[in-house]
Amino acid sequence: MITPLLVAIDGGNSKTDVVVVGPDGGVLATFRGGGFRPYEIGEAAAVEVIASAVAAALDRAGAAPGALVTHVAAYLANADLPEEEERLTRALMARGWSRTTRVGNDTFALLRAGASKGWGIAVVCGAGINCLGVGPDGRTSRFPALGPHTGDWGGGMQLGDLALWNAVRGEDGRGPRTALTSAVAAHFDVAAAVDVGLALHSGELGAERLLELTPVLLDVAAGGDTVAVSVVDRLADEVTALGTVALRRLGLLQTPVEVVLGGGVLTARYPLLMTGIERRYAERAPHAELVVSDAPPILGAALLGLDEIGATPETYAALRAALTES
To answer: Is a pLDDT exceeding 80 seen at residue 325?
Structure first.
């Protein structure tokens, strides 16, 4: 039986990854649980999802019963406001796993994993979209990222919704004809795009299935479809707007700085989208260096955990090697 050094948690919309780190930085165990979706199932139930994943990971690691882990580092999608982070920190501390606990938004983990200097800008586009800026002096720039009612646009769910919206309107004549109509119908193996909307309405299809239409949209755009291209262009604008606003707030527009791009939509590196993002940053923030992060999101959470406890360089090296080896 051992006492782990660190438990790191990456909580996303679709899954929660947990890694248990040993005193030397080696990985003792990993576990993947369900998604962290407090907006859907309530905060208490969402914390239970994390708790069950942590318990399973500690069991796999052979952790000593009742022993306190040095630190828990949890970086979660849908922990969007400072007061939510504080409340979740208290909820995880109450589990009695560790001496100290820190909860933050998952953009902090993306930035930590992808930025070589430990500061810069992170823009994530997965199921949702968000941005974080951290200056060299530690100042931060954040957005509420709660959806359209806080000014947000983009993310896989919204892109999928737009793919279906345009497909149906192109089908019934309310909108321009588009290849999305046949592509959406084919993806779900139905006769018409509107059948997908009807299946969502009846509950035959869950709303989360809209995420499947994001790659459909991007593939149709790659074929030159005008309607799909217009959506991809708008996404490139949004990814650029988020980053440049964060740079401006921190006074970094004239400073060489890394802009780390993460989340499934961006790490897929669709050429049309990436070319649009690169061109817009070159125009609006020419000193920015775009970095697409290939590191697993859990790496950033674990590195931030080591930062909190003042780990040795050897511990960092061992952990990074363990979590990035193929």
So the answer is: no
